[in-house]
Amino acid sequence: MSLFIIHCQFTHFAHCQLPIQSTVISTTTNDTKCHHDDDSEPHTILQQIQEIANKVNTIEKTLGTYQESKQTNTQQDKYVKPLLNNSKKPSQIDVVLGGQWGDEGKGKLVDILSQSYDVCARVAGGSNAGHTIVVDGKKYKFHLLPSGVLNPKATCVIGNGVVIHLPSFLNELDNLATMDVDYTGRVLISDRAHMVFDFHQQVDGMCETKLGRNKIGTTKKGIGPAYASKISRNGIRIGDLQNWEYFEQRFRSLAAATLMAYPGLEIDVDEQLQYYKSISERVNSMTVDTIQYTNDAYHNGQKILVEGANATMLDIDFGTYPFVTSSNPSIGSVLTGLGVSPSKVSGIYGTVKAYCTRVGEGPFPTELVPTDAPDCIGTHLGTVGAEFGTTTGRQRRCGWLDIPQMQYSCLINGFTAINLTKLDVLTGLDEIQLGVAYKYNGKYLKSMPACLKSYSEAEVVYETLPGWTEDISNCKKFEDLPDNAQKYVLRVQELLGVPIRWIGVGHNRSDQIDRGEGWDLK
């Protein structure tokens, strides 16, 4: 009976005859109407359907088969709405990045966070990166491995965007074993990651020497030349070791091309091939398709933490070029160096010191040159902060926190929270200055200068805040900090427009204040 009535109604509607002068009009309600003079009849398609439904309901009530449902009279509810899952998706891929010129203390946060993650990954750079972790008085130094390897339940992935010097990598693993860290079955290398050879490191040193006083200040770890081989399309990937004949052919070709390009360079090809043959079985046992592995882990609901290397101001595209590294240590490297889509990334945590440091050459607007004077702030920051490079041992240049530089970094990376490290190093200073703006030729700059000449000549506008003398190393909550320390943190947070969630108050793993997930924009 109901089907018969519906059929009749639709037949009536379908045969609604439109005179030639009739038109189909669109009103401000976007309803499509059959235009005729009888206002007593339903005009819109939706009204026609509603009329049919009302008649069906009447018949069903008469037959006793009608089931009451929640009805609304609003026009909006007559539309069929898509089924959307509005529940918040749990964090899947979170990222820790450096917001300055490196050495900000990313490894410490990764070490803390990684205890609750299933996968920890590196996505760019090589052994030029260095992270130092102190756990129960024991110091761990990492260059290629993610710091998350200290979590015995985490799998560590070295993504396709990393360039790997296998002798250094295997040495790092052996050192972990001597410190009773069991990494067996927990370290995976991308078959698409490119290899750094000893001659890449030799080339790196040769190029730096030729530059003389205009040197870049590289770590001479062969990172740039390895990426150059990659871009020149004669590089060798980790997965090539799985086919020895192919690897040998590629190696001999690359060595020949390098010898031709750099007269005076010496490569013992046979000795090198013998070495790589000897380690191939060990390396192959750790080599996998990390793109597939990582995406499978994501779809299986595992939590993934990406540990950035270097920092935004050393980015080959966004940094103080040419005084930069050879990769993209900003947010984009997570996608290209791990093989995941942007929609999978959740928290993006920017790590920044409470002051600023830089290793190597290049402009540094807020730098405080150290002197022998007892009240020299540059000396205080370098000494109290133990500012010496993990990879090279070089003394780091120190200066005040540079807010315009950090605002630029926030803009590029879209940080959802800030990890402010080494606040304790500022303890004991009478006053603390914040670089809050740049001026060039008497005018305020609205963005970061691309030209290094302009950048090096920019004048920094400072804001002065009162210091504190109280020891903060035992502070566990933000409210435990001295008032002036709180004011400093809040002022930095205000200027950056990003919440400061973590605050470092000492060098140990536990010397950290976490203000909680409520201080994360995600």
Can you lay out the helices and strands and say which pair or pack?
Blueprint: H1 2-14, E1 24-26, E2 32-34, H2 45-63, E3 93-98, H3 106-113, E4 119-122, E5 131-135, E6 138-142, E7 155-158, E8 163-164, H4 166-178, E9 187-190, E10 194-195, H5 198-211, H6 223-231, H7 244-261, H8 269-284, E11 287-288, H9 290-299, E12 304-307, H10 332-338, E13 345-353, E14 356-358, H11 377-384, E15 397-399, E16 401-402, H12 403-413, E17 417-421, E18 431-440, E19 443-444, H13 452-457, E20 459-466, H14 483-496, E21 500-504, E22 512-514
What tags apply to this protein structure?
522 residues, alpha/beta, ten-stranded mixed sheet, four-stranded mixed sheet, 18% strand, disordered N terminus
Structural summary, described in words:
By secondary structure, this protein is an alpha/beta fold. It contains 14 helices and 22 strands. The chain has a 10-stranded mixed sheet, with helices on both faces. Strands 16, 18, 19 and 20 form a 4-stranded mixed sheet that branches. Helix 1 (2-14) runs antiparallel to helix 2. Residues 1-37 and 70-88 have low confidence and may be disordered.
Whole-Å distance between the termini?
55 Å
Q: Tell me, briefly, the overall form.
A: globular
Biggest sheet: strands, sense, closure? 10 strands, mixed
Low-confidence stretches: 1-37, 70-88
Structural class: alpha/beta
Work out the strand percent: 15-25%
* Average of pLDDT: 85
Number of contiguous helices? 14
How many DSSP-defined strands? 22
Strand order of the largest sheet: 11-9-7-4-12-3-13-17-21-22
In helices, the fraction of residues equals 25-40%
Oligomeric state, counting identical vs distinct chains: single chain
Radius of gyration over C-alpha positions, nearest whole angstrom: 31 Å
